C-alpha cells in the first residue's frame, strides 16, 4: 500500500479574507466606470459655465478683406482702428475669425468690423 503525502507548501494561493482580486475583465470594467464618471462630471460641470442669456446681442456688422502679400494682422488692424487702438482691433478681428494667433497668410479672407 502506498500512502500519499500532501506538501502544504504547494497549495494554491488564496486571497486573504477581505481582499479583492480583479480579473483582466474586472479591471477593464472598473476603468470604464471611472472614465464614464469623469466624463459625466465634466459634461455636467462644463455646462454650468454657459454665457447664454435671454437677451440676444446685436451682431457686429462686418465685411470681408483678403490678406495681401506681406500684410500682417497689425497692418490690417491699423487701417481699421478709428481711435488708434490697434491692439483692441486685433483682438476683435481674432475673435470674429476664431484665430489662435495673429499669423495670417496671403489670400486668407478675414471678417473685419465695419468702422464708420
From TrEMBL:
User: Which InterPro entries does UniProt cross-reference here?
Assistant: LysM (IPR018392), LysM_dom_sf (IPR036779)
**A Pfam family matched in the record:** LysM
Q: Cross-referenced CDD domains, in alphabetical order? A: LysM
Instruction: Domain (LysM): give its ranges.
Output: 64-113
TM region positions: none
Protein name listed in UniProt: LysM domain-containing protein
The organism's taxonomy opens as: Bacteria, Bacillati, Actinomycetota, Actinomycetes, Propionibacteriales
